From TrEMBL, chains A, B:
InterPro entries: Cat_transpt (IPR003445). Pfam families: TrkH (PF02386). Keywords: Cell membrane, Ion transport, Membrane, Transmembrane, Transmembrane helix, Transport. It comes from the Bacteria. The chain crosses the membrane at residues 12-32, 73-96, 123-144, 189-211, 223-246, 296-327, 348-369, 404-426. This is TrkH family potassium uptake protein. It is found in: Cell membrane. Signal peptide: none annotated. It comes from Planosporangium thailandense.
């Protein structure tokens, strides 16, 4: 144990494991399952992992299988996972020791990627405040809509609003309906607040703070903020246009909707791979080309230090600029007048290729364990690894071993790249700099 | 045209285009098609591209669709493609101008990756001699076996032996039987010479020459040779064990064979993804997990400056060592006591990720053009891009637009990475060296 604590990078996976264990224990209580008796251990483990890792894949129907107590546990696990176990651990450390040790600070830095250690305590509080008020605002809008538009009683509407707000902002992908949020496919008053919460949550706090501070001076934005804002827009457009183009005539998805509703659904599904995981159309009915495009968008994921998963936008765009420089024979990789250090390039490369390796190994394992075709299994693997939670619907029917593979993928996807990045951050060495340099966050 | 010639990197794609055009023209002659009348242009274009790019995907049955003249044209195109249009162009330049201009030399260097320009002419001749004698030896063994074991007449046996020897050594994947070489699945006298020729051809001439020179002193081998020899062995073992494990009980493939024949077929198919493309078992009957594993092996491919395709063994292993160094926080990437320059790392990264991008774009396009599921289309895409030629059998039934996509993938796969690498090689700049350094070939 002391050995472990000497390596701060190991605190993050251990904290996640503890949260998953506690969550599994709580979900196994008879009070958690509707009808009583408690769920099988694998169901509790899968659900707890999916909640803590803010994934949203489910083996049972969240709406009917769990009691309000069970759903409350899931919501709490989502909140803990989204805010970051590490952040809570740091706060706990603060309460216990009344001081921020270097070790705690380094871990916190690795998770939230804030360069200035002295601002850490303030950042922790600001993150919590921003999260709280944003979630309250979205919850209020949703609750009003549920109450006015759907005649829900106030207590029900507030509970529904709060759960879906927390699930959206934390990119968790859980919903209190058996068909995700498909019932609201044509209701912009539900779709747009949820999509906004997912998009903002997937941008990440470093970018949000910079945007709040420098919103009117884009010239001052850091490379990391530029990539994240630009990348979010580009991937949203590609995702929405892809869904529109591929699904326009598909009777199982957009085909039965009018043109404005087609656009609303396409925008909603354009946001979700980064990595919200809710759906207003049935992914089990999607055309294979839409699923393959979504595979790529999910794998790329959202912003660094956000509630989103995937290899992250900055990783993807740094690699794209590396290739650009290579093709044009330029010695340095330059993004908006800043040279990207070779250390950052190597980190981006490692994060991306380790991701490919995990997804490949996961898909191959699921192929040997089941008789489903490769397409849907790849989709489920990437959805788990990138903690997205979109599904063609085959997860509940998987054999136990395959479910455990998904549990492992969700855990590795949420913790693995962080661990690697932390290990790298703690051991990085000084290099010679030839130009003013900046290190966008990768992984 | 003068502009083009000023950029030597463009000579390679243009030479390939010329060879494909000439081949298409020859195959369109009435004398090429059995029964006369000449084939449709797309069939001739597809076959010529597949032959020049030594891929082996076919839209018609090579054995019955073409006359001996047509088959001879295919064999010649294979030989030209395998030896390298560039090499022939250089020789042509020699005959015309009696001197080796710098431009020709640089192109030849980029293709055959020989660092010492002054040895270029000697290398061209040694490559031709090695190729010729090796092909003659394999052809003789095959011809003897065809004559003695299968009662073919001498002329037929020699023709069959020569064609399959050329096809094997050049990793072309063409066969003169309607079912590839499945009829010889249990005959080691046919399988082993073919597998040997494919394996040796896929190792590449720089490595072969070094092995001939330094066979008894492995301590003197270059990093490039070590990676290629080690990688060939590892991927062969993974491929063979994978086929054995996944197909052992499959009645459509290994299930009906005895244990020794199972092993023979597994070894044969373990060699073929790198990138021979012949098959003694039916890939249309393979389990999906075998196809996914083969996807990965085909994508990695064979040795640099060989007749094999894919991103190349050195690219893959350099990237693996980069990740290893990154995970362990080491500033330098070291392979057997040699530091790998960051320029080489960047080349490897670019080659691999451009390959992923091409395969992704190809698969997505084929999905929109056809109604086949993603698994087989991904397999066909990688097989074309990595110039392997293995197929689950759907190529002939594809619509014309999809066939053109495969033509483009074969061309890009054979020429694209070379072009990129050449562009990089011609513009690389001096860097500061901290350690004795070596640049293994990537791409
Ligand atoms: K999610
Ligand atoms: K081939």
């Amino acid at each position: 144990m002391r050995r472990t604590l000497r390596h701060p990078a190991r605190i993050v996976p251990i904290a996640f494991l503890v949260a998953i264990a506690v969550g599994t224990g709580l979900l196994m209580l008879p009070a958690a399952r509707a009808g009583g008796g408690g769920p099988p251990p694998l169901t509790a483990l899968f659900t707890a992992t999916s909640a803590v890792c803010v994934t949203g894949l489910t083996v049972v129907d969240t709406a009917t299988y769990w009691t309000p107590f069970g759903q409350g546990v899931i919501m709490a696990l989502i909140q803990i996972g989204g805010y970051g176990i590490m952040t809570l651990a740091t706060l706990l450390g603060l309460l216990v020791s009344r001081r921020l040790g270097l070790r705690t600070r380094l871990v916190a830095q690795a998770e939230s990627r804030v360069d200035d250690l002295s601002q850490l305590r303030g950042v922790l509080i600001r993150v919590a405040l921003l999260m709280f008020w944003f979630e309250v605002a979205i919850a209020a809008i949703l609750a009003l809509r549920f109450a006015i538009g759907y005649g829900q009683r106030p207590a029900t509407a507030i509970w529904q609003g709060a759960f879906h707000s927390v699930s959206s902002f934390n990119n968790a992908g859980f919903a209190l309906y058996s068909d995700s949020v498909m019932g609201f496919a044509t209701d912009p008053w539900v779709c747009l607040p949820i999509a906004l919460a997912v998009a903002v949550g997937a941008v990440g706090f470093p970018v949000l703070f910079e945007l709040v501070r420098e919103f009117r001076r884009p010239a001052c934005w850091s490379v990391h903020t530029r990539i994240t804002v630009f990348g979010t827009g580009v991937l949203l457009a590609i995702g929405a246009l892809g869904v529109l183009l591929f699904e326009w005539t598909n009777p199982g998805t957009l085909g039965r909707l009018g043109v404005p509703d087609k656009v609303l659904a396409a925008v909603f599904q354009g946001v979700m791979p980064r990595s919200g995981g809710l759906s207003t159309v049935d992914y089990g009915q999607m055309r294979p080309e839409t699923l393959v495009l979504t595979d790529a968008l999910m794998f790329i994921g959202g912003g660094s230090a956000s509630t989103a998963g995937g290899i992250k936008l900055t990783t993807f765009f740094v690699l794209a600029f590396v290739i650009w420089a290579e093709i044009h024979g330029e010695p340095d990789v330059v993004i908006s007048r800043r040279r990207i250090s070779s250390a950052t390039q190597r980190q981006a490369l490692s994060v991306a290729l380790l991701g490919v390796a995990f997804v490949f190994a996961g898909t191959l394992t699921l192929l040997t364990l089941t008789s489903y075709p490769p397409g849907p299994l790849l989709f489920e693997t990437i959805s788990a690894f990138a903690t997205v939670g979109l599904s063609t619907g085959l997860t509940p029917a998987l054999p136990p071993a395959a479910k455990l593979v998904l549990v492992l993928l969700m855990f590795l996807g949420r913790v693995g790249t962080i661990t690697v990045a932390t290990g790298m951050a703690l051991r990085s060495r000084r290099r010679l700099y030839r130009l003013p340099e900046e290190r966008p966050i990768v992984g």
